[in-house]
Amino acid sequence: MAPLPTLQKEGFTIDLLEENKETSFSRITNPYDTLYYGALDSTLQVEIWYPRKISVTYTRQRPDPEYLKQFKLPKNVAIQISYIDIKNSIAIKENGYYYDQKDWVNQGYWSWKNIGDQLPLDY
After folding, report:
1. Distance, CA of 11 to chain centre
2. At residue 79, does pLDDT exceed 80?
């Protein structure tokens, strides 16, 4: 059996909005596929791009109780979910800094929590 990519090991899943559907997402089984992900150069930066909105789920930690309270969500929500629109490709540095920030629009948990604290260091 092949080892899991880092994102899955870290507890993340990524789903892509299905074409011509407003609310249906399909799992991206390999987020490191060259359709979505690539190395920029020897500076250890990577570039990501998705053609439609993605849903990023983090399964290893419950949402902060304050988040659940603020958005009137049930207290038993067990995962953190964020929705991201990437308007143009995004470059991510090794330290988690990404640019151009104007091309990244997020909703859900990451819109409430600092995104730099959420990305795996080697994404």
Report:
1. 11
2. yes
